[in-house]
Amino acid sequence: MKIKSKTIFLTCLLLLSSFAVCARACPPPPCPNPCEYWGGPDVGCVCHEACCYDSDCDGFFECYSCNLDTCTCEDDQSKCSGCCKCDMGMCEDDDSECGDPDCWNCMDCECECDITINSVSSDDYACVGCDVTFTADVMGNCSCVDWSGGGDPESQDGGCTFITQWDTPDTYTVTATPDCGDSEKDKQVTVVECDVTSADVCQDKIHVNLEPSGLSGTLKLELTGPGGSHTIREVTRSSGSYDETFDVPNLSTGEYTKVKATWTVENSPCVDEYNYHIRVLGEYDHTCYNTPDESGCTGSNEWFSYTTGTCTVTDCTWTNAQGKSEWLDEIEENGSGKDVSGYIYSLEHYCTGNDYSPKLRRTGAPCAQCGGTVSVGDVAVKPSHPYLDCDDTVCVYGHGTHTVVDTGSGVAEAQLDHYTGVSACNVCTPPGNDIMTIKLF
Question: Which of 346, 341, 365 is closest to 304 using CA atoms?
Fold first, then answer.
């Protein structure tokens, strides 16, 4: 409870007629103890639980208490700074200033500016794009703590915690500032980025950026997919840019859809995933086939029948001709051949009614089973291969990329037959056996 000047004045006139008329603007309280108030003739003087009262009319409030050994308010404190939040007592505008609340509780009145920030804590390392939580150890009201130096958001008014994130790797300083006082505290955090920018298994290259500068940690590279994962390597890497390898000869067979990189700095892992779809087929045998040139073949002349057209169109009109026996045998094995006059023939699979075998079609270029022609570097696979079909692209480790355009009945599942162009009979150089082969999507 508080005693206003007007109340005191009326009490002096009505209840204490033996007192002299108050000559001062602010008369003393009617009870001997300034922390008591007149409760009426039946009650007498009653003790305030706590009070702040201007007893000597000097314009400042003094602290009195009937039931406390010491007061929590300071002497000669005219009013609390800012708005009071009282658990007991009163916060009212009680003086001539009108409009600003004054603090009237010596026991449990906490003002907004009565705050001390002891420290600010957070993780020392965080990842780009990840939330970082800063927590202030505060004595006082958390609503009086203002935050600055963040990323997104950059700042915050009020609160003992502040959550923010950054999209650029660097070291940042976040500051917690009280509404009043000088207990401002800072906390630094290093924002780390592990960024996979490209991947090419045929070039055996994974490009990774590790930032910011001055750090060191463990880099783990993996392939992940619907069937599981494969660890490429774990190695210590400092900040910088690196062209890591796939370690192709040691890849596990399976389908993978992402390259995953994890850089762990001071027990804080940062992860990046790069979309990259491959199927590791494993070690394949790689053979070759060609278009045999009759001029480089031997044997006696034998009859054969042929039609004329393109790889996809013919009128099925037959013509008979002769060619070297070895050359004709090689056409049946390889699917095409070049005669001594320079004409290209492919096996005829559509027309019937021929007089001699093999039956051929004179075309402008060697024909492929997938439709169209076959070019140097294209490959043939086993018909109904479980993973490879027409127009698929494969990487043959150490031998570049190749397109599936053809099939061959004598080709095994773990085999690719490479077309090498026009050459003499039985003359082509295969890439070799047990070579890691990967399908690209």
Answer: 346
CATH architecture of 194-272: Sandwich (2.60)
The angle at the Cα of 26, spanning 23 to 29, to the nearest 5 degrees, equals 100
Domain ranges of the chain: 1-111, 116-191, 194-272, 285-440
**What's the distance, CA 351 to chain centroid?**
59
Quickly name the fold that domain 116-191 has: Immunoglobulin-like (2.60.40)
φ and ψ at residue 261, rounded to 5 degrees: -120, 135
Cα separation, 95 vs 57, in Å, equals 12
Tell me which DSSP letter residue 59 carries.
S
What is the spatial distance between Cα 219 and Cα 243, in angstroms, rounded to a whole number?
A: 13
Q: How far apart are CA 136 and CA 148, in angstroms?
A: 13
Residue 97 token pair: 């200033």
311-369 pLDDT tens trace: 999 999 999 999 999 999 999 999 999 999 999 999 999 999 999 999 999 999 999 99
Please identify which residue in the block is written with the tokens 């603090």: 103
Residue 9 has φ and ψ, to the nearest 5°, of -60, -45
Chain segment 101-120, per-residue pLDDT in tens: 444 433 333 444 568 999 99
The pair of structure tokens assigned to 202 is: 């045929």
Q: pLDDT tens across 264-311, in order? A: 999 999 999 999 999 999 999 999 999 999 999 999 999 999 999 999
Cα-flanking dihedrals φ and ψ of residue 151, to 5°? -100, -80
pTM confidence score: 0.72
